[in-house]
Sequence to fold (293 residues):
Amino acid sequence: MSAAAIAMTEDDLKTFFSRGVEENMDALYGTALRLTRMGADAEDLVAEAVSKAWAAIGTLEDRQKFRPWIFRILHNCFISKYRRDVARPAGTAIDENDDEALAALLNDQPDEFLVWWANPERQFFNNMLGSAIMAAINDLPDAFRMTIILVNVEGLTYDETAEALGVPPGTIRSRMKRGRTMLQKALWRQARDAGFAMPNDNHRQET
Amino acid sequence: MNSSKTGHDHDDIGCLEAIEAFYAYLDGELSDPGAIEDFEHHMSHCRSCFSRAEVERLINERIGEAGTSKAPDELKSRVRRLLDEF
Fold:
């Protein structure tokens, strides 16, 4: 058990833990929901993570880091228990640390994508519901989806997100770039399929 | 990236480099002052990237609004029972 944990009495520790769990309940449930995509599974996952976290309270070395610590336990519970049951392509097939891969991702875009991104149909974005964006995020590979959720929804810093997902901090920056570029591409496809005018159709304003 | 830059003169970074720094900048994670200056300088004269950044901000807002979930009361009671048992 760490020095910080030893310094507290059992009661103090329990109070601290309970408060931490309660303060993060919505965020833990929301994250579990994004991971499992099923309400009932998400509730089970949160309950399991809370039990495991209390059993592993000795591994929390810095009380300030409760949030990334418990998110990491939640994530690990998901990986060990649920992920195998979910039939979807694994995000690990992509070399997420390869900066050249990002350049390639951008270079491989059809020109009209980059033009559109610089000058998108405003109406498309004005009408686009948050739920449609979340649906597009849900289709991203797990690693990118979780990074975007923890940073943009739950408000974790890149360092906290790295701790929560058990990866080096630089990986989060790289995942944000790639994940959000993939998201842009998905939104571009939606706009195109919905019949929105592409900027270079008739009024290309790019200089 | 240009971590050695101290921001004395603006380096004209290209769009690809600016796009590389987009999310770190918008998420408040770009810490090198030189890199921040270069990025902001690029934004000040590149209409395309300025517009891209606006779109990204809008998406950030929508994600923040739509992504937040409330834990159901049932789960709250279940966890409270768990905590009481510890």
The helical segments of chain B are 15-26, 33-45, 47-67, 73-85. The interface with chain A takes residues 16, 19-20, 22-24, 27, 29, 47-49, 51-52, 55-56, 58-60, 62-72, 74-76, 78-79, 82-83, 86 of chain B (CB under 8 Å). Residues 18 and 39 of chain B are 6 Å apart (CA to CA).
